Amino acid sequence: MSGWLKDRVFRTVLKNAGYLGSTKLIGALIGLGALIGAGRMLTAVEFGTLMLIHTYALGVGALTKFQSWQMILKFGARPYEQGNRSIVAKAIRFAVGLDMASGVFGMVVGMTILCFAASYVGIGQQYTPIALLYCTLIPTMSSATPTGVLRLVGRFDLLAKQQIITPLLRGVGALLSWIFGLGFVSFVATWYLADIAGDLVLWVMTIKELRERDMQSALRPSLREAPASLPGVWNFVWLTNLNTTLDACWSPVGNLIVGGMLGAAAAGRYKIATTLLDSAIKPANFLEKGFYPEIMRLDPKSRHPWYLALRTGLLSGAIGLCVMLVILIGGKPLISLFGHKYAEASTLMAIMSPALVISMACFPLESLLYMAGQAKAVLVAQIVSVITYITALVCLTHTFGLHGAGISYIFGVFLLNILVMIPALIGYTRRHLLESETVTNSEV
After folding, report:
1. Which residues have a Cβ under 8 Å from the Cβ of 49 and sit 6 or more positions away?
2. DSSP single-letter state for residue 42
3. Whole-structure pTM over 0.85, yes or no?
4. pLDDT of residue 442
5. 370 DSSP assignment
6. Exposure winner among 47, 246, 338, 396, fewest CB in 10 A?
7. How far apart, in whole angstroms, are the C-alpha atoms of residue 443 and residue 308?
8. Residue 438: what pLDDT?
9. Residue 208: which domain range?
10. Positive or negative, the Cα torsion across 74, 284, 162, 136?
11. CA distances from 245 to 386, 416, 418 (A)
12. What's the domain count of the chain?
């Protein structure tokens, strides 16, 4: 580690991850408290329905949104360092246009599906009007421009402050619901208001940062201007959009499938397990958020980005091993805080815990392939692994219930990372051939 810390970029990745982790830990604990409060105060069916409504909106947003933040960093990181603000502004305008179009489209699609097929995702008919209202969150949920801008300008400290807002408001809302004996609707309102407040604060921070750099005009949406100046941008955003759509199958869509097959109560138990696992994997998410902007500034022809990925992955994987041991030892007492009716979630979480180590150790692979211009390889890996995962999820859940869902998740994650690792290793051995494609993307 002492040798690794001599690498300035590695230190920057750790510093940015530290910014995000400093508040996310507090936010995770508050959010866990809100989740426990909802689990104990609501019936198993009501709690499961709350999770399904929230997951449905997240899932539809994830299926329809573009990864506009990745596009901003891919096409704007080097121009920003070189002082080419015109190109950066065009990338941001394009991202805003993508977010607005995909957000409205996702909201309309989500509401339409609910009107005809709410019961197929485990949402009862009596809860459909509430779920329809919740879908109005999709445009802000699926907007990634603010995150891309703040990462581009290095304001990870602002991202760290913002990410505590939503869990804090959820915690306050859950506490008020408990004090005044409020029911299901109050918890839905709490989740809704907390989400929209967090998203709006992120936009306010972004506007302020752009104004300080005299770049507020970059927020004017445009889908025509950027493609003329950013060769390959449409190809990149479509590939990342498809990859994001497939990625949504792992959590939101998977949860909806479980709810549709086993009912809202089982979906609630599954959601508890996956939420706690998502919280446990946050260290890798922090590292990824700091890793992606830095690696996009490096030359893929050199060994530096590849060694940086190896070091970061080893560090993250070691953390993952520790987290898995904590889950195996302390998972059952933690789940007991939700109440005895969710006890099955502890076994499910233990079954799924090895996926943590795999995901955390291999997180740099996807960013490496994007850097090297091999987004298609990521997409192919996602297609194969998602089809396999969904097939296994339906079959094993039908046969073994929730435990089958956990087994299929581990198998799918393992397959995904193997399929991504192969082109990454090939890319490293052939990195001297990547120069021409990278130059094309960096000259924009």
Report:
1. 122, 123, 124, 127, 184, 264, 268
2. S
3. no
4. 35
5. H
6. 396
7. 24
8. 38
9. 4-442
10. positive
11. 10, 15, 20
12. 1
